[in-house]
User: Fold these one by one.
Assistant:
Number 1:
Amino acid sequence: MLIDGHGRKVDYLRVSVTERCNFRCQYCMPEKPFSWVPKENLLSFEELFLFIKVAIDEGVTKIRLTGGEPLLREDLDSFIKMISDYKPDIDLALTTNGYLLPEASQRLKDAGLKRLNISLDSLKADVASKIAGKDVLDKVLDGIDKALAVGLKVKINMVPLKGINDDEILDIMQYCKDRNIKVRFIEYMENQHAQESLQGMHGKEILAKVKEKHTIKALGREGASPSFNYALEDGTEFGLIDPHKHDFCENCNRIRLTAEGNLIPCLYFDEAMSIAEAVRNKDIEKATQVLAKVLKDKPKENRWSEYNPNEDDISKRAFYETGG
Ligand code: SAM
Ligand code: SF4
């Protein structure tokens, strides 16, 4: 079992398989063009898998593949199959913007993927393209339908932004209700790569919007999930991911691995240790040692509630590198 320096059980590994993306979401990517990490710096799937096996053997029971856009990485389904064959009962999930799902859903399902979180910030074509930087809505909606049709379990992620999509919270809720899928509203997390003018909605404001039409009942956090669950009057459940809240980190159970091999204990802070050399040398003992050190030093809590971009310890890594 993996226990961090604050006594929390860590059993969840998020793996970013690429930082590259086919979208340029305003809350995640800089507007100006930038260069990607050279491909030779990325770990191969075999190298990532070597660390994943260490993590599973040490107690990780849940793995989420993310990015950047994970479906851009070639042969992702063979990587999914490697993990799923190694530990068939692992809770294996993927977070995607959905754009490539019309073609990829069946392959992902056949490879052993169980669950998908799909980002859907708007049901209006012009707003969706304003947020993502290109015309995306039809493909994303088609991707959601295809994923459901092949039998993947789907959740929707929405990041409500003031003056952009804050009028669509109830519409997205209804869209999900119609398909019997759960939506999670994510508070915008301030970061240095997002468009400066953006203003996110805080949890209380999101709940106030929902209350304009519904009565809601607080259900609580689902185990160590970052999502606080609520139910509408008819039992429909939805989640709120509110990292600005003080108790958000109490049960944090996760660590993150980037495509370059940086093992990151907390999204908010810059700290990370590389497992790249260890896995390139197939040095399992070293990889296990790095994992233990990262867990020992995992910070107690983020400081989004008092976000100040000038503080030194705030991570300069973008969410498309760490997987959000
Ligand atoms: N490209 C995939 C996608 O968009 O779903 C996976 C990577 S993305 C970084 C993972 C999640 O992080 C998405 O649900 C996205 O909406 C969320 N995200 C990205 N930047 C964020 C921010 N600044 N605040 C809150 N959520 C953010
Ligand atoms: Fe790409 Fe996802 Fe970031 Fe949007 S949120 S730019 S889809 S990585």
Number 2:
Amino acid sequence: MKEVKIESTLYVYENIEELPVEAAHLMQKAFQARDRAYAPYSHFNVGAAILLDNGEIITGNNQENASYPSGLCAERTAIYYAGSQYPNAKVVRMAISATSKNKPTSNPIPPCGACRQAIAEYEVKQDSPIEIYFMGEIGKIAKSGSLANLLPLVFDKSVL
Ligand code: THU
């Protein structure tokens, strides 16, 4: 038996002013999308903005449903739309921001496991890393250089 350690690396920016200008612009798009979220049940609004290698910016937000599991997260709303509209484009980066009506969100809020799995599919498909920037409403922003870094031991097509 041997121990196997798995490491992930995040880069943490103090605030949006410290971000590279292109990432800050994408985060602003995520803010705008977040503010259009349909989240009457959780009151937890999430926005995601995606930059494609053709220059297009695609945004999405969470869409909830009275039948709770029928709702969808912001990140998947955005990436499925990008995949459906631009099937041959590569995803360069994604910016995510979340706010809650129940409590302040001033720490980086990472994408849920299901969204990581969904984004991983596109990272594997395009064979190049997708940068992920995530934050709450204000405060620090975390950057992951790839989706794989956020989802070690990914389940992908290589096992099928
Ligand atoms: N949500 C997202 O949009 N993205 C995530 O990564 C986690 C959760 C949404 C789903 C639901 O509408 C609300 O946030 C509370 O879970």
Number 3:
Amino acid sequence: MNIELQCCGLFIIFTITVMFLREKKLDLMNRKLFFRAICACVACLIFDILSIILINMSVLRGFNPAITQIVCKIYIMLLVMQGYFGYVYASTSMLPPDRLWAKIVKAVSHLIFASGELMMLILPIGFEAHGREVYSYGPSTSVAYVLSAIYILSTIITTIAFRKEMPGRRFVAMLLWQGIWLIAAAIQFMVPGLLLVGFASAFGMVILYIQLENPSEFIDGSTGLFTTNALSAYVHDRYRFGKRFSLFTAKIHFLTNYVDYNMEQAAVMRTARALIKLGPEPAFRIDDDTFCVVYEDKDRMLERAANIKMQKDSVTDLPAKGTYLLVPDSLLMSGPDEFFRLMHTYLESEQEIVFADEELVHRHRRQNRIKDLIDDALANDRVEVFYQPFYNLRENIFNVAEALVRIRRANGDLVPPADFIPVAEETGQIIPLGIRVFEKVCRFLSTGDAQERGLGQVEINISAAQFDYENPARFVFEYMEKYHIDPKWINLEITETASAQNRDVMLRNMGKIIDRGISFSLDDFGTGRSNIDYFIDMPVSLIKFDNSFTKGYFGNEKTKYVLTGMADIFHKMGMSVVAEGIETEDQVKAMDEMGVEYIQGYYYSKPLPENEFLSFLAEKNL
Ligand code: C2E
Ligand code: MG
Ligand code: MG
């Protein structure tokens, strides 16, 4: 009899089924559909074998042909079902579930399947056996051939159409799977004695199982928890089908410099066991020291999170700190990209507990938009430097200016620094941004155009955060050499929008820059951030009274006394003073009386682009 290949196929598919059922499962649509396809394959092979046996029995020994016909029909109906389930498995992961056309395609394929099955049920079927050649024939069988071909071709076409949206491995596996079917069907069609289709379908399932549904990629070998790959699959699956979930994430930071590997592993294992013990919900190890659990709803997550947090101290005796991220509702985020981006941002943050509610998600979204804006501006040379002239009251000339950064959007709009500097400081983008501004100013000064028009110095803002990430001395020296910049042309303003974490390092690095002849000024004096301590040992030669401080002079007697007194102190310390935010003539006069050396403000000029700034200097100074 011609059933050896079928028996082999059945053995293979049984093995896969057992392996599939034994593995730890994650509730994923793909997996459900794959399992459905496996079941159809098993049923199909069983009826394939049964039909061969019964055909032989009917032809050779006169077994009841009606029963054989029924079995043959069930077999071909299952064969079509298998093709259909294979198509559904493949297309569900490809077709966009929320698009109307995809819904129509789905409905049509359902309809074709249902009507095909009905036709196979109603239409007559015959069977034949000549030696090893055993087959069924007739209209019912023809429908089965046509439908199988439709499903195989649909799967291949869909796979090719969506190849850009899937990893290369998936693309190859899908084509291989369907290709094997197609070749087997063609051979069987030409050589009816070679019943290859059943075996080929089982073999195709093996390829899918190994290449796409391989559980080993989903399970972390050392802890038995699900892996990052599994979390990625889970999150993509949930967003794809619009299903809500809640998530709890815990990251353990060891606070000692030296952590014994075994102790760390022990803590990891204890955490994993605690998470597994805590409940049926899937737990993941997404990094060496980061774990998360997903829940169907927020209340369950909150109840469990309290439990997990309490257990922190029981997992390690080492000094450790936990960072916890609670996401009550995944649908607050637009999709997997935003979800993982948020996770990454807040797990790296300093906060102990982060609750990703609507407000936080919006803040994060805005921050990311700005982050992208900065990246885009850096990549496409849309970082611009404007110059605001200072009036020198002693020499009656505009001989100093401040360089102020702006970002030009693709549509031409300008974005003011207040909108992006704080984000740049937080993300570290302040480093490339600061370097870009510095280079642009150096390039501008290297032409000598501004100096010809009376400019003696440009003040460049350096945020204290820049000293946290790197040593600005490096790029300052590099560009000064490259553009042959005289150090007296440049003054660096330390802005205090963020304060340096390591003040000693900052002072040391400032010292290196000062040694090369570049001076510093202290920006935003009077905003409350610069206390006495801060400026006493700050090596600055210029103090800038902040807008709000100078405004206070005119509205508040006390501020007036403080400001006058402070100006006096700074002068005695050998420093000069700049008054920022001066908008009227009266204000200029008052500052002049107070002994301020420089006036920066809209009264004289707003920050100007390079060419307008040069025209301004030419008009006022020459
Ligand atoms: P800042 O360094 O204190 O700069 C002075 C700000 O006051 C500028 O705002 C300027 O346009 C504004 N201003 C000047 N005169 C007047 C006035 O009369 N009235 C009013 N209402 N405002 C006046 P801008 O350009 O928006 O810059 C804001 C801040 O962004 C700067 O404050 C500085 O802290 C930061 N910044 C600007 N460029 C850079 C940069 O290249 N690097 C860094 N780290 N920070 C920068
Ligand atoms: Mg400034
Ligand atoms: Mg300022």
Number 4:
Amino acid sequence: MANETVFKRYAGNPIITAKAVPRANSIHNSAVTIFGDGYAGIFRVDEINFSFTLHVGFSKDAIHWDINPEVIQMESSDPDIVVNKQSYDPRITKLDDTYYITWCNADAHGPQIGLAVTKDFKTFKQMENPLPTANRNCVIFPRKINGEYAIYHRPSDRGHTPFGDIFYATSPDLTYWGKHRFVMGPTSGWQSTKIGPGPAPIETPEGWLLIYHGVWTSCNGYLYYAGGALLDLEKPWKVLYRTQDYLLAPTEIYERVGDVPNVVFPSSAIVEGERLRLYYGSADTCVSMAEANVPDIIDFIKTHSF
Ligand code: BMA
């Protein structure tokens, strides 16, 4: 293993491959969460006709997953909300007794963020699209901030987005979003092209822990890395610390080789006690896991900050 920081990769990586769903070309950039006495997830399945679809899955140990071969059918009181164009890169947040799912629809007049809620992972109610196009990443905070729902999001463009800053916004009702505040943008090295929020922010005594992706453009195209930041608990647009060194880089064969090579794309985390399991898309082909203790991640971010 090369270049591990505080994260240790699961020895059985990748944990999910295209074999999990009959029509899958690849399964990657997916979201998982604690659910009941086990775990549930929303998986990005790129099918053999190259439809990008969302599928629900369940697991007893967060390693072995049963993924439904059928595409999730969202319910909505207004069919105009449901875009259903190439749905990808889901995220999950639990807030009170409800799970909030966000994802990106490709090419709905530019990429657009979708939002749905579920309590049982059987029925999914799609809400108003929270943001105008173009925007590719959106994660909901696991508690309200100053009485309002809060998100980190990443405005974008219609193409391959050679830029990208993280913004913060709030809503009183999940429909109307505003008070957009700049949080952080690309900087040097592995995060010099664009960045975007990964798993939903994790509350710690030292601030919100945000694991994010950073992209570097080499002469051979994009490479994706995972980094970390700590942000003010009540003013989450204020960055307290941000890693100069990456937390995870594409070094293993399943991260180096695939449909899009050299990709580590962090998209969800399961935190139980101090143990954090990070789930990440590998080379746009499969899902992998790496784990670390939350205090060690915080210490690494604080001691490897700009
Ligand atoms: C995400 C998605 C993917 C892309 C990936 C790298 O933002 O747009 O389709 O290839 O980045 O995993």
